[in-house]
UniProtKB/TrEMBL annotation:
MF-aspect GO terms: ADP binding
Homology family: Belongs to the disease resistance NB-LRR family.
Record key words, sorted: Leucine-rich repeat, Nucleotide-binding, Plant defense, Repeat
Chain ranges of the Disease resistance N-terminal domain: 6-90
Top-level taxon in the UniProt lineage: Eukaryota
GO BP terms in the entry: defense response to bacterium; innate immune response-activating signaling pathway; plant-type hypersensitive response
Lineage: Eukaryota, Viridiplantae, Streptophyta, Embryophyta, Tracheophyta
Name by which UniProt lists this protein: Uncharacterized protein
Listed Gene3D superfamilies: 1.20.5.4130, Helical domain of apoptotic protease-activating factors (1.10.8.430), P-loop containing nucleotide triphosphate hydrolases (3.40.50.300), Ribonuclease Inhibitor (3.80.10.10), Winged helix-like DNA-binding domain superfamily/Winged helix DNA-binding domain (1.10.10.10)
Domain Disease resistance protein winged helix: 434-505
Domain Disease resistance R13L4/SHOC-2-like LRR: 552-889
Residues of the NB-ARC domain: 168-347
Length: 910
């Protein structure tokens, strides 16, 4: 891990802002010396860390190096904060004059020089120890800057395919138990086994079985952690059946109403579940208390309903249902273990070509891993990074520690694979320790935090965010992280980390003072007396003001009161997720001296008063190094000051009416801007300059927008996602000719519509018909809302050959008929028709929409004719909500043949 810490510090020392500031203040020579010494030391670290479990002297040396790297980071961060404070006090011009006259007379420079001199002396002693202790001096290359077989950013095949070996018979047995006709009353089926055996994988296979989808009208999956709240369990089950209404969402935000909320959700669930055969999956249950609370809510009617529980504790299975023996997960057989190992070691190739040269090594790996699936996948992922030769695989085999096949030994295997992970990936992996158990992790905030932490190097021609995505894909390939969901373009949308790997991330983070976890009242904060760099508060039971310290760089909090902060001026990341209503306390007032802040995310959706909002914006305006701002917050005039921050990369402020940057504002690094209102002044004085913009969400475009907006699009060559709404109604809107813009060939997502209550005609003035050039040619997602077409748009839209998701929604005056030709929509997978109140007929010729997987029809109350869905062979999910009564009766009666092939059908009551 010391190699990783040194790697991060070297990245910091080559940051443009740091190098320019140090050279300006007369510390350029010491900067060069530091870089040279650290690169020399880094060249020895990988071998030294490999030896540290055997050699106490090497272990001590590595610890010294890690602490020295942290010290360098502290000195640089503190100096940068003091420079900002100096500029604030003196003014930028006066501060610059003082520096140019004689920088060595400035107190902050004298302090920096003294500290860096002490660091250099200490680094010289570390070099002497290297010689004295005989630590490997023969390493020829810089391991961190030239890792072997660098990752190319390839996307893995479907992760399920790599997970499943030897489970087909087990899946059929679980499905048989779930569908047993001889047990009409509610039954609890339990899958029991140690961590890493594949309980969740098996449950998913059964849950997604076509037989199960057809038999259960309601299916809900719940991931249960060691710490759960009963009200959240109930609300998640209800939300899996129907959307929560506004009152129910308010219940969840108000802790005072929790007893009433529990009663409400329980009544609603009991009423809905009585009517249909249901399957509830409760994955990873740790306590019998959960079943004691849930059992009275779930109806015990004689319709064959089921609950499937996965757990490591057999007592839970017995208590839940003593009439059904738990299904005990078995270890894989040797041949199955070899198959799983090779699937992960050769995700893109046929391993048969290498089996002869590898001899009996696959079998030995299977034995070493104790035939445990998780260990096999992680080791297979590790082997996928090596040349498939006997010698290279044999070296990995010799490092593995395994004895009797229990969970502790599995952890040893995982730890060995972690130690073999490249230095640049170790901090990224340890970062997963900040998330609660079984958390569904949203990837975009994660990689933006990696960038803000300095984990990601700058590369020519590639954004740091793109490099971070490659790092995440490499962790997936190594089976250290699991993909939950991908975007339609193949990038990862949500991921998760297995419990055992999360435990490993926490262990390594604590061991290296990388992160401290505060999860309950008994945990003691030690940040003020140690070098803890990051803190994750996973419970709202702690006063957030306790958690401060001179070395703290990042703070992650969940459901904590954040009215006032008083943290280190070197804090870089402040990331909070709010679940309970905090009224005005949901928005922190942070210190103006926290100028090193790079990432601020606060997802508490409380609506603070204007005074609190104004104070917040005034404080955030001083964050001149801010890269990401992501929060729910109201607009006030003081908010305009954020557009003076030139380092901004991502600004996400959904739905609160923030005015966009002033005209001609230059934001060279901004990649994401959501959601801002278009200023009228842009049309006259000029749009802001956003040369790096990739994702843009603009509200309230005025009627005369077109000429100036087209000029802006010409200057936005990297744009991949655009969401625009218009503030004029009763007028005709001419679609743009996208073929004239640089983004025509790489735009992936387009959302276009009217502002609330502002409907407009779409299709062009003078009744000009839509043209394929009206859309970027390679669109993957298209949403059109609150607008009306002068003619059926489908004949044009169906020609978008890469379109995979189409949403047409919210129209009072839509076409009464839409149709699709035999060759139309060749790659479409998801179609949503919502609130099209005049739509009566939807037709699709045979051969149209051949890859369609999911249809959602929402509140199309006049719709009476739908296509022959039986011709759509891949359709596996159909949701119908607020449907015309005649159509509903026909689909459930004489036209039910259209739906017989669809595994999952949901009729949501009107």
């Amino acid at each position: 891990m010391a190699e990783a810490i040194v790697h991060l510090v070297l990245n910091k020392l080559v940051e443009v802002a740091v190098t320019e500031t140090l050279r300006l203040y007369g510390a350029g020579g010491q900067l060069d010396s530091l870089q040279s010494e650290l690169r020399w030391i880094q060249a020895f670290l990988k071998d030294a860390e490999a030896k540290k479990n055997l050699d106490h002297r090497a272990k001590t040396w590595v610890s010294e190096v890690r602490d020295m790297a942290y010290k360098i980071e502290d000195v640089i961060d503190t100096f940068m904060a003091e420079v900002d404070d100096h500029k604030n006090r003196q003014g930028v011009i006066n501060a610059l004059k003082q520096v140019l006259r004689n920088p060595k007379k400035l107190p902050i420079v004298r302090k920096l020089t003294s500290e860096m001199d002490a660091i250099e002396i200490r680094l010289q002693k570390i070099k002497e120890f290297t010689e004295r202790y005989g630590i490997n001096r023969d390493l020829k290359e810089d391991l961190s800057s030239n890792p072997s077989r660098p990752f190319k950013g390839v996307v893995l095949p479907d992760q399920d395919d790599l997970d499943v070996v030897g489970l087909e018979a087990d899946k059929e047995e679980i499905v048989k138990l779930l569908l047993d006709p001889n047990t009409p009353r509610r039954r609890v089926v339990s899958i029991v086994g140690q961590g890493g055996l594949g309980k969740t994988t098996l449950a998913k296979k059964a849950y997604n079985s076509d037989k199960v989808k057809k038999e259960f009208g309601i299916r809900v999956w719940l991931s249960i952690s060691q710490q759960f709240e009963f009200i959240n369990v109930l609300s998640m089950v209800l939300e899996g059946i129907r959307p929560l209404n506004e009152d129910e969402k308010a219940f969840l935000k108000d802790p005072k109403s929790q007893p009433r909320a529990v009663q409400h959700f329980a009544r609603q669930l009991n009423s809905l579940l009585k009517e249909q055969r249901y399957l509830i999956i409760m994955d990873d249950v740790w306590t019998p208390d959960l079943w004691d609370q849930v059992k009275d809510v779930l109806p015990n009617t004689e319709n064959g309903s089921r609950v499937l529980v996965t757990t490591r504790i057999s007592e839970i299975a017995t208590k839940a249902d003593s009439t059904c023996d738990p299904y005990n997960m078995r270890y894989l057989r040797v041949e199955e273990s070899q198959e799983l190992l090779l699937k992960n070691a050769f995700p893109f190739q046929d391993p048969k070509a290498y089996l002869d040269s590898l001899s009996d090594l696959p079998k030995k790996f299977a034995q070493k891993c104790g035939n445990l699936p998780l260990a096999l996948k992680v080791v297979g992922g590790r082997l996928s990074r090596e040349l498939p030769t006997y010698n290279s695989w044999h070296k990995i085999l010799q490092k593995l520690n395994w004895h009797d096949g229990d969970e502790k030994n599995c952890t040893d295997i995982l730890a060995t694979s972690y130690e073999d992970t490249p230095a640049y990936l170790k901090p990224c992996f340890m970062y997963f320790a900040i998330y609660p158990e079984d958390c569904r992790i949203k990837v975009k905030p994660l990689i933006r935090m990696w960038v803000s932490e300095g984990f990601i190097p700058e590369k020519n021609g590639t954004t740091m965010e793109e490099t971070a995505e490659d790092y995440l894909e490499e962790l997936v390939q190594r089976s250290m992280i699991q993909v939950v969901e991908r975007h339609l373009n193949g990038s990862i949308k949500y991921c998760r980390v297995h419990d055992l790997l999360r435990d490993l991330a926490i262990e390594k983070a604590k061991e290296n003072n990388f992160l401290q976890i505060i999860s309950n009242q008994s945990d003691t904060w030690c940040g003020s007396s140690t070098t803890v760099r990051r803190a994750a508060l996973l419970s709202n039971s702690k006063d957030i003001m306790q958690f401060t310290g001179p070395n703290l760089r990042s703070l992650f909090y969940f459901d904590n009161d954040t009215e006032n902060f008083s943290f280190s001026t070197t804090l870089k990341i402040l990331f909070g997720i709010g679940g309970n209503s905090r009224e005005a306390h949901g928005l922190p007032i942070i210190s103006k001296k926290m100028t090193q802040l790079r990432y601020f995310g606060n997802f508490n959706d409380a609506n603070p008063n204007l005074a609190v909002v104004a104070k917040f914006w005034k404080s955030i305006s001083h964050m001149r190094n801010l890269q990401t701002l992501h929060l729910f917050c109201g607009y006030c005039p003081e908010a305009d000051c954020i557009w003076n921050i030139k380092t901004l990369r991502h600004v996400i402020l959904p739905g609160y009416g923030l005015l966009g940057p002033p005209p001609k504002t230059d934001l060279p690094n901004l990649q994401t801007l959501k959601s801002v209102i278009v200023r009228e002044s842009w049309l006259v004085e000029g749009w802001p300059k956003l040369p790096s913009i990739r994702v843009l969400h603009l509200d309230d475009l005025p009627p005369n927008y077109k000429e100036s907006f087209c000029n802006f699009l010409i200057e936005a060559p990297h744009l991949t996602s655009l969401n625009i709404s218009f503030n004029f109604s009763g007028r005709s809107y001419e679609m743009l000719d996208w073929s004239s813009f640089p983004s025509y060939n790489h735009m992936q997502s387009l959302v276009v519509g009217g502002s609330q209550d502002n409907y407009f005609c779409i299709g062009g003035i003078n009744h000009k018909a839509l043209d394929i050039r009206s859309f970027p040619i390679h669109l993957i997602k298209l949403t059109i809302y609150e607008c009306d077409f002068q003619e059926d748009p489908m004949p044009v839209i169906e020609k978008l050959k890469n379109l995979r998701k189409l949403v047409l929604t919210n129209s009072r005056h839509y076409q009464k008929q839409i149709s699709c030709s035999a060759g139309g929509f060749p790659r479409l997978e998801y179609l949503e028709l919502g609130v099209l109140v005049l739509l009566r007929e939807w037709k699709v010729e045979k051969g149209g929409m051949p890859l369609l997987k999911e249809i959602f029809i929402n509140q199309c109350s006049d719709l009476v004719v739908i296509p022959e869905l039986q011709h759509m062979a891949r359709l596996n999910k159909l949701t119908l909500w607020v449907l015309h009564e005649d159509l509903r009766e026909r689909l459930q009666g004489e036209e039910s043949y259209k739906l017989q092939h669809i595994p999952s059908i949901k009729f949501i009551p009107n």
